């Protein structure tokens, strides 16, 4: 009751004096560069200009406030008004909020305006936009890299499968060569037996002896060719096995790369989402 009685006896000038003192304190307390202006229903009574604004105090006190903007709108509606003042007005962009001032009789006697500098917000928005743009480019590049890594992994897996088939074919070739080698061995024995029989036949077996000798030579050459081919296939098989081990290692690397790239893509997407949130916050500040 005592407080209400004290307020009911306060004059408008005294109320403005109290508000001016409080405004001065809040001007110092608010960490963001700010300007606080106080008006009655016609003119500026006092204001505390931020360091980034180009207007000095003596230029506004006692002068009429603009016919357009938050102040006349607040005096008319009695409600909080918000707007953004462009850089051209005070030399730097401000986000302005204006409240009506009322006396104990609930009569609107003026306004108080808080204007927060948007310099840091603008810098934050520009940085967020640059980061967002870079993140989008990096995301696109990473997605392309991920697709390439997956393709590489698939291709390497295909090469590994082909290499295993080649080893199987070499094994099949060895089986065929073993068969040819057996035929050559049998032919050599047949040739030797034929030569023996030709010798027993004497004069009548000379022609057959020549044929038997050629069969024996052909068998020996076939056996030699089979051995040479086996050595060559053995070398190829060793090289292919070595290649297969390398391909297996490369497959593991490709799989790891593909997984890591996918994780990187997910992280970049999260980073892009965080950047979007920073942009939203910068618009609120």
Structural class: alpha+beta
| Tally of distinct domains | 2
Mean of all residue-level pLDDT scores: 77
| Low-confidence region ranges | none
Please compute the radius of gyration using only Cα atoms.
48 Å
Helix content: 55-70%
Shape: rod-shaped
CATH architecture of the largest domain: Orthogonal Bundle
Tally of DSSP β-strands = 5
Characterize the largest beta sheet: strand count, sense, and whether it forms a barrel. 5 strands, antiparallel
Short description:
The protein is α+β, with helices and mostly antiparallel strands.
Overview of the structural elements:
- This protein has helices at residues 2-8, 12-29, 70-77, 87-90, 119-201, 206-284; strands at 34-39, 44-48, 81-85, 94-102, 108-117.
- It folds into 2 domains: 2-117, 2-Layer Sandwich (Beta-Lactamase), CATH 3.30.450.20; 123-284, Helix Hairpins, CATH 1.10.287.
- The mean pLDDT is 77.
- With 285 residues, the protein is an alpha+beta fold.
- Helix 5 packs antiparallel against helix 6 (206-284).
- The protein contains 6 helices and 5 strands, in the order ααββαβαββαα.
Kindly list the characteristics that best describe this protein.
6 helices, 285 residues, alpha+beta, 2 domains, single chain, Helix Hairpins, 70% helix, five-stranded antiparallel β-sheet
Secondary-structure map:
Layout: H1 2-8, H2 12-29, E1 34-39, E2 44-48, H3 70-77, E3 81-85, H4 87-90, E4 94-102, E5 108-117, H5 119-201, H6 206-284
Antiparallel strand pairs: 1-2, 1-5, 3-4, 4-5
Helix pairs in contact: 5-6
